[in-house]
TrEMBL record:
Organism listed in the record: Haloplasma contractile SSD-17B
Sequence ranges assigned to domain Cyclic nucleotide-binding in this UniProt record: 20-140
GO cellular component: cytosol
Record GO terms (molecular function): DNA binding; DNA-binding transcription factor activity
Descriptive protein name: Crp-family transcriptional regulator protein
Matches recorded under SUPFAM superfamilies: cAMP-binding domain-like, Winged helix' DNA-binding domain
Gene3D superfamilies: Jelly Rolls, Winged helix-like DNA-binding domain superfamily/Winged helix DNA-binding domain
InterPro entries given in the database record: cNMP-bd_dom, cNMP-bd_dom_sf, Env_Response_Regulators, HTH_CRP, RmlC-like_jellyroll, Tscrpt_reg_HTH_Crp-type_CS, WH-like_DNA-bd_sf, WH_DNA-bd_sf
Domain HTH crp-type: 154-228
Keywords on record: DNA-binding, Transcription, Transcription regulation
Domain of life per record: Bacteria
SMART domains named among the record's database cross-references: cNMP, HTH_CRP
Length: 235
């Protein structure tokens, strides 16, 4: 994203993309945009380090990032994939906490930040924003619970199918053959996301392709050809 884009739109694009601000009026959005600080990151740059103070509510304006932590075994465990319109740092509203994960840019990324000290002004504009943030926070907890359950109970095929359906909902677009997904993660990244090996991910994707359920286009795109079959195979 060009550096002057946010200046041209007065940061409106940032706030309009975020679900928690979706019900605000233009005047209310204008008040929020006055609080915004803009930053840009290159692919591979860390936005946040584990253990650092969380001082801002961070909105992804353009790009994708991953939130991850290092396991005791020294492996990477991916917790979330944040893309345009997503936000993190919401714990600042309720407690003074340090980050419990790293956040790394998966591609060139532009973010808009609102300082913790300004969040009170934001909530005075619309107190319901805090409830919307809590709802999103609860959804993330639910997703983590489902991930833990799938890693402990679901078989490998189901885990692959679940993550493809998750990416479909978040990154999918209509395609003449079905639904096209620009994968936010490499094979190794998907493996870290669902707790299997890279080889297992590659093998299971090939099996799904051989069965006519998906079509792989290079390493970064998957087309879901038969969504019903993909869903019915989850056990």
């Amino acid at each position: 994203m060009k550096a002057d884009c946010c200046e041209q739109c007065m940061h409106q694009l940032c706030t309009k993309k975020v679900p928690i601000f979706s019900t605000l009026t233009s005047d209310e959005l204008n008040q929020i945009t006055k609080l915004i600080i803009r930053k840009h990151y290159k692919k591979g740059e860390l936005l946040i380090h584990d253990g650092t103070k969380l001082e801002n509510l961070v909105i992804i304006n353009q790009g994708r990032v991953k939130a991850f932590r290092d396991t005791i075994e020294g492996k990477e465990q991916i917790l979330y994939i944040f893309s345009s319109g997503d936000f993190f740092g919401e714990k600042n509203l309720f407690m003074n906490k340090e980050a419990t994960y790293h956040v790394e840019a998966l591609e060139e990324t532009s973010i808009c930040m609102i300082k913790k000290s300004d969040l009170g002004e934001l909530l005075s504009i619309d107190p319901s924003i805090s409830l919307k943030i809590m709802e999103e926070f609860c959804k993330r907890i639910e997703r983590l619970e489902n991930t833990i359950e799938s890693m402990g109970v679901k078989n490998v095929e189901s885990r692959i199918n679940i993550v493809l359906l998750e990416f479909k909902d978040k990154f999918g677009s209509e395609h003449p053959k079905g639904i096209s997904i620009k994968l936010p993660l490499s094979r190794e990244g998907i493996a870290h996301y669902i707790g299997v090996t890279r080889e297992t991910v590659s093998r299971k994707l090939s099996q799904l392709q051989d069965a006519g359920i998906i079509e792989m286009v290079g390493n970064k795109q998957v087309i879901i050809l038969n969504q019903e079959e993909l869903e019915s195979s989850i056990k």
